[in-house]
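Hi U.,

Before I forget, here's the chain from the pilot set. I'm dumping it here mostly so it's searchable later in email.
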Amino acid sequence: MASRSPNAALASCLGELGWSPKVLARKLNRVFGAGTVAESAPYHWRDSGRVPRSPLPTMTAYVLSQELGRVVSVDELWQGRASDSLAFLPATASMGHTWNYQGLMRIVEDWVLGGLVDRRRFLAVSGGGLLALVSQYLDGTAGRGPFSPRLSEDTTTDPLVAQVEQNLPLLQQLDDVNGGLRHLPYVGAQFRSVGLLIQSGGLAEAATVRLIRALAEIGQLAGWMAFDSADHGLAQRYFVTALRAAHQVNDRALCAHILADMSFQAASRQHPADAIALGEAARRASDGSTASVRASVLSRLAYGYATAGRSSDFERTSALARELIETRTGGEEEPRWMYFLTPNHLECQAGYALVGLGRSVIENEQRAVGRRFIRTGLDLLETGAHAVEKGDPSQRRALFEGGWLALGYSAAGELERACEIGATAVGRLDTVRSPRSVALLDQLTADLRRRQRNPYVRDFLPGLEETVGKQQSAAGI
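Structure:
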């Protein structure tokens, strides 16, 4: 397109972020894949007013919106000279239906029709856009779902429903062993299949309710796997659909679990205000649930507090979660999706929250306080899964905790231990595909590049850089 005057809107956004056009190009290549844009191209966009080829206008507006924490529209950024790309849609697209059974079915229809050939990429939302997705549930205007939760506990033999329900624990094992990215398409296909069964109708009411509850459980799992795959917009759509399904059958414990996952995702994306809003809503929804459910929800909320730098709230909430799990009587019937929660799981989640908090505090020049947080976090993480054998079913957890442990030791200056733990984590990438965990190893790479005079770093770093690069390219990161 012919050159025009400089793009003041783009220049203003870059100035607010303190970015050069080259930094914008690198961010686009990191979010959407290497080679998306040449590093020199954004200089022409800013200085000569050129408009890039589609879908780059949409991609640029998305990246800037995420970094600035507010919506920067394509129209605003390019002054009406570019159109939104239909291939890139916000996670909110077609999700604004009423919170009743008919609204759920319209959303399910979109999933079913999309199928495996859906080429849309859903862009994650934050702030008001994210909270609007669940606002009717949060403020109570969604009311109660139409189905009694007792119907989902029906024991009538229905071979089809029984097959779907019996498959749920096996689907969860896929994520535990291999990470989110490897089997997300398969779990997504199972989600759509159950949605199609519900849409087809003709089942007894109890069978329909059990399938809706199964849809919610599979949707939660698919959302978690998409989150682990760093496909955050898709994860948000799965989570919100699952929340709507759980709401229809009035399964408040499952609703709380899903909101807590959304909180954890927001915190992991460095949106602490969203994380706290969703985590506190999850805590309210978990009232009356089992001790394990409430402990799990509180642990997610605590992580949000840590991401926000609210150390006192983190410590108080984390301690309450630990107290709940340690004093549970064992007489309560736990939801089948609560299988993963153990005291050690909570300890390790607190551990990597503390490592993250400590690293952040050190960056703000409070070194003594930050190192204290990190040391406590390392002690907790050392009790976890990072060193389990390759055949252990907790491979994805082991990789993730190992990544955090290595980051903690790097920040503490214990470079030999950081490299040792990092090498164990890297060795799991043969079987685990988890871009969320690879992102931790990428942070470790950046840490160690500043320490290359250390002999352990000098030996370990080249292999780490090569492996991380290959993993990111394979995942399209």
